[in-house]
Amino acid sequence: MVKKHVDLPEGADDSGEFSHRVGKAGGTGNPEDYKTDGRLKNSVYEAEMERLQEQLVLLQYWIQSQGLKVLVLFEGRGSAGKGGVIKRITERTSPRTVRVVALPKPTERERTQWYFQRYVEHLPAAGEMVLFDRSWYNRSNVEWVMGFCTENEHEEFLRSCPEFERMLVRSGIVVIKYWFSVSFDEQRRRFEARNAEPLKRWKLSDMDLAEHELYVKYSMAKDNTFQYTDIKQAPWYVVPSDDKKAARLNCIHHLLSQFSYEDVAPEVVKLPDMKQMPYVRPPIQDQTFVDQRF
């Protein structure tokens, strides 16, 4: 079902457009908030992230109070920043309300199931927001690029995925899809940084190297995926992510903007006094403690 192959110009990102960074006049509108390379200063980033994370907590309470079912998909190339934004979203929220799903490779049994079956059990119930760190779009991206699925399986996915997502929306699930877009040069820089740091080298997998080599084919996969699955009921939102910190702020800001939420955080409660009971604890010397090194 791939319609055409368009060679990307040097320096273009995976959306077919030349990569760019926010200029000093963009974003906050204050030139002093940006470094000379156009990236946000750390102090500005940290202050805005703190504000957005507070709003995410308020959104969490709203989702609980309204019984909303929210599903957020994060897709994109390796090192594009999906994991980083998911980490910031969940940093201050409750894992009982905001869950992360990052499925491993399917088992032999799962390979014989209906393709969407292993994902369905992780969909949100009322009062939950589920974040998919990669999702069923593995079929039209990683699997197709690496040859892990057949052409028939790929074509069937592109036919059935829009209908599957329309079914989710009709059932009352809010479906939000983000694609993190990173340029070839920036992806290479991030892979080189991982390779140079022993404590981060585990992040650089054989799959990452193969995907980097097949950058253009991955662009074809993304373009074809968008052609079939960028639907009105569940559109794609592209997050330019050459500047990781700006990408995190932009994505979280957009996520919050999708809801007309109100502050329904619980009021301050009075902590109870300890209830006295006729109980004598055993000697503390009977317990084994860790060494007090600090």
UniProtKB/TrEMBL annotation:
The keyword Protease does not apply. Belongs to the polyphosphate kinase 2 (PPK2) family. Class I subfamily. The keyword Transferase applies. One of its GO terms (molecular function) is polyphosphate kinase activity. Homotetramer. It comes from the Bacteria. Gene3D superfamilies: P-loop containing nucleotide triphosphate hydrolases (3.40.50.300). PANTHER family: ADP-POLYPHOSPHATE PHOSPHOTRANSFERASE, POLYPHOSPHATE:AMP PHOSPHOTRANSFERASE-RELATED. Uses inorganic polyphosphate (polyP) as a donor to convert GDP to GTP or ADP to ATP. Keywords: Kinase, Transferase. Its EC number is 2.7.4.-. Residues 40-264 form the Polyphosphate kinase-2-related domain. It comes from Nostocoides australiense Ben110. GO terms for biological process: phosphorus metabolic process. This is ADP/GDP-polyphosphate phosphotransferase. Transmembrane segments: none annotated. Residues 1-37 are annotated as: Disordered.
